[in-house]
Amino acid sequence: MGGLGLTVLATSAMGYVLLLLAGKHLSAVDNAVFLGFWGLLMGVGSALSPVEQELSRQTAVAAARGRKPDLSAARTFAVTQTVAVVAAAALAAPAVNAQLFDQHRELALVAVCGIVAFPALYAMRGLFIGAGQNGSYSAILLAEAGARLVLFVGLVVAGVSGLTWLAVAVAVGSCAWLPFTLRARGLVEPSPSSESWGVLWRRMLGLIVSSALTASVLTGYPAVVKFVAPRGSEDALGGLFLAVSLLRSPLLLVLAPIQTLAVPTVVRVLHQPDGLRRLRRFAALGAVGTLVVGLVVGAVAYVAGPWVFHLLYKDKFTVSAWTMAGLGWSGIALAATMLTVAVLVARKQTGRVVTVWAVVAGLSLLVLLASPGGILFRAVLGATVAPTVGLLVALVLVVAARDSATSGESPH
User: CB burial class (10 A; 0-12, 13-18, 19+) of residue 297?
Assistant: First the structure.
């Protein structure tokens, strides 16, 4: 576990370095476009990531019976790959492409390539962590983040300044699964699937929808704001987009594997006689910890955030102290919500998972569209209020679970 923790920190650090380099290397307007691309790619990737958690759950359940997962794993992957292709096709639609990328239409093609490669990456990660192969899991995490950073730095050093080529460097990370294909094949046994296509479609679509809602307030938030903002707002929103990306994109790189690790852990806890009571205690402790850590992070961000931005970017980007404080607090609230939702994923309570993230995404969009003030104020307010309410909803759903949920089979 210690080695896995270091790997997660390393991948997060690589994400930070890449975003910092982009902010320094690109103009303010180009960087806003790049961060919109980054948010879109990582947001859609995040929406597809439930295949990782689901396969880690299937592998952990099979391991508890002394077996490997059956062909349900292959069907789960096929469902997710189909959704990825549909999402990529929608992104390539001219109207969507024009609104998101304006004159940089070629970025949609780059994003499409990255999106269709994501399901295999997440599927292998889920199989590795569910089987307890922490070494392979760490290796594929490092390969993904490392490929992006190495190619990005290489292009910058070589003097390649085109926005498209830097976007290609980011999308290449989605293909980091290729060297691990043979290693992953042996983790699934060719026995008949224990679940029908219909059951898997319903479960995975529910999880993907909930994850897409999650992404809309996490890595995809800049893309959502850009979609509803008036054209020509890049200068006003550039600093906010950079702050959101620096605070939330690496947060996802850290929390996605931790959340995936939490799912099989919860499965094992729920198989213990006092499993539900222990989970309720963890939820209470997590709520208190979130409040304390969130206030501390918000205070530090308020004091140090604008100074750090000025140190890194001089007058290129300006972010207010209250903006940094709100984003700092909301980042901790989102982290706690993701970990709390992992309990619901482990119980196969897909309906409750969707409920949590529908509240977060819906409230965020409502604030963006209906609250008074300029687009910058509304974006910060939506990023702060929605995750706080979502965390409260997630905690209530976990604590209010009946004892029958300990079986992990409740679908709602």
Answer: buried
**pLDDT score of 221 more than 50:** yes
Please say whether the beta carbons of 289 and 313 come within 8 A.
Answer: no
Q: What share of the chain is helix, strand, coil (3-state, %, to 5)?
A: 85, 0, 15
Helix (H, G, I), strand (E, B) or coil at 169: helix
Instruction: Give the global pTM.
Output: 0.74
pLDDT one-digit tens code per residue, 331-376: 888 888 888 887 887 777 878 888 998 999 999 999 988 888 888 8
**Cα separation, 331 vs 92, whole angstroms:** 31
First to last CA, the chain: 32
255, HSE (Cβ side, Cα atoms, 13 Å): 24
Task: Dig out the tokens for 127 from the structure.
Answer: 């199989």
Q: Amino acid identity, residue 177?
A: W
How many CB atoms are closer than 10 A to CB 186? 10
- The rounded percent of the chain whose pLDDT value lies above 90 is 23
C-alpha distances in Å from residue 88, one per residue of 41, 110, 144, 213: 10, 10, 20, 17
